[in-house]
């Protein structure tokens, strides 16, 4: 791995496995991990919990908090893994601002892609998460596929979390 600080944003819609894959990747790399959902304000969690999609205005402060966290990590010459849906190009660009003042740092997005059927199945079977399966279609409608953007690794969720983490790590090298 490079000596340059690197932050990996594991992204995708709800149910893609961001938290599981990010945890495996962070463990494999020995890097700290931030669960991006932990930075959501209570009002965002409450809104999503009752099935209301977030607006760009709802998301902006949350995304700025994640970008600040990224900036703090790379300013300390540290690498890390963070989860964030990062559904739109404008959201990803806002996260890219976290490394704008750090020319030696890299920001890489690992996009976990899956079919609507598989994503819905996963959401319907998980326990203890604030995001109901009914929100999947709004997330898919908001998603601007990042495939082809610079610094994006696209992985299909039909593989196990450990295989996805290994594929992400190999792509980072």
Notes on the protein architecture:
This protein is an alpha/beta fold. 45% of the residues lie in helices and 14% in strands. A five-stranded parallel sheet has the order 2-3-1-4-5, sandwiched between helices. Helix 1 (18-29) crosses helix 7 (161-172) and helix 3 packs parallel to helix 4. The longest helix has 20 residues, at 56-75.
Q: What Rg do the Cα atoms give?
A: 15 Å
- What is the first-to-last residue Cα distance? 6 Å
Using the coordinates shown, work out and report the CATH topology.
Rossmann fold
Q: In total, how many beta strands?
A: 5
Question: Which features would summarize this protein structure in a list?
Answer:
173 residues, alpha/beta, Rossmann fold, 5-stranded parallel beta sheet, globular
Summarize it.
With 173 residues, the protein is an alpha/beta fold. It has helices at residues 18-29, 42-49, 56-75, 89-96, 116-125, 136-142, 161-172; strands at 6-11, 33-34, 80-83, 106-113, 152-156. The model has no long low-confidence stretch (mean pLDDT 88).
């Amino acid at each position: 791995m490079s000596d340059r600080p690197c932050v990996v944003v594991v992204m995708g819609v709800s149910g893609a496995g961001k938290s599981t894959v990010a945890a495996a990747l962070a463990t494999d790399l020995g890097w700290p991990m931030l669960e991006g959902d932990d930075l959501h304000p209570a009002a965002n969690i409450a809104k999503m919990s009752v099935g209301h999609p977030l607006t760009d205005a709802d998301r902006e402060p949350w995304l700025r908090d994640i970008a600040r966290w990224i900036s703090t990590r790379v300013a300390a010459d540290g690498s890390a893994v963070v989860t964030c849906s990062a559904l739109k190009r404008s959201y990803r660009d806002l996260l890219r601002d976290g490394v704008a003042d750090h020319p030696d740092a890299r920001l890489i997005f690992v996009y976990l892609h899956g079919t609507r059927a598989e994503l819905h199945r996963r959401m319907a079977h998980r326990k203890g998460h604030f995001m109901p399966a009914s929100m999947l279609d709004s997330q898919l409608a908001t998603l601007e596929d990042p495939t082809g953007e610079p610094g994006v690794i696209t992985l299909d969720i039909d593989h196990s979390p450990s295989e996805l983490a290994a594929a992400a790590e190999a792509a980072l090298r």
